[in-house]
């Protein structure tokens, strides 16, 4: 049973790396561009959400890089 979980976790990690990583990177880049260009007000709801996402990007994206990530930041 343990080996089966390991295989499933590895498949899940590979899936996230392939499908989720590019989306996460694009969202981060999009947010950075809009904050830098001031097309989104930093103190608006969207601006706060973008800043949160950028600030916590490493923790939010840990699932893309590590199997079984449980690191909270």
Give the count of helical stretches.
3
SSE order, one letter for each helix or strand: HHH
Helix vs. strand class: mainly alpha
Mean pLDDT: 84
Q: Can you give the helix content as a percent range?
A: 55-70%
What best-fitting shape do the alpha-carbon axes yield?
elongated
Rg calculated over all Cα atoms: 16 Å
What is the percentage of strand-forming residues?
Answer: under 5%
Low-confidence segments: none
- Tell me the number of strands: 0
What is the straight-line distance between the termini? 31 Å
Largest sheet, strands/sense/barrel: none
Topology summary:
Layout: H1 2-36, H2 45-55, H3 57-60
Helix pairs in contact: 1-2
Annotation keywords:
mainly alpha, 68% helix, elongated, single chain, 73 residues, 0% strand, 3 helices
Task: Characterise the protein shown here.
- Helix content is 68%, strand content 0%.
- The chain is mostly helical.
- It starts with a helix and ends in a 13-residue tail after the last helix.
Task: Give a nutshell description of this structure.
With 73 residues, this protein is mostly helical.
